[in-house]
Amino acid sequence: MKSRFVVVLLALAPLARADVLSDARARFQDGEYDQSAKLFEQSLEKSPPSAAVFFELGRALAKTGQEARAALNFRRALILDPRFDTARAALQEANVALGIPPQKQTWKSQVAGRVPLDSLTLGGTILFWAGAFLGLAAFFPPAFRRRRLLAGTFFLLLGISVLTVVWLCDPRIALGNTAVVLTNGGSSLLSSPADQSEKIASMPQGSLVEVLSQRGRWFYGQLPGGAKGWFLTEGIVPLIPPA
Question: Which CATH architecture has domain 2-102?
């Protein structure tokens, strides 16, 4: 009897998550933005991460004046879907409100924003294994051995090159150590892990920082401009949420 009850609960779980998401969207339409944001957060806690839901959560937070948290969720949407142009435009608006300067586009972000990385990964994997198969087949039988070996080497190297590009451009990898400053009023980058140490730079609310190491209540990190230093862990949230 107990096992049947568990099976029923598992079967109803997706419906419950769908109800939470539908309720969140309905409340957003009704202008209940605070409650809508809470429900979107509940949906994300109970379901696999979704670019669309992160974006909708960001919109609800922006409506309540929480621009830094809104920008965080727009960024999370773009990590899952770098070609989500609506989320990119919303992030730009949030950054303008926060006084964050536009982020420079790199070749990595341009590739991620134009090419479906999952398809590129699949293509690179197919090329890699096709090259490996042709290279192995070059040893049996002797006819066309040289051509098979050359073709196998070509496809193998091409597959490795494609997978390397994906590894470099995938924001889920490239931004793995990046965090966002959510502290009210921002934070400061200091020369040493001490409150009275020299201030190197300001870290406005909503700005990005790469975390390199941690010592107690202090992070050591690097700003996008290259400056390195120490800053307090309070109010610093990972860009990619922990699993």
Answer: Alpha Horseshoe (1.25)
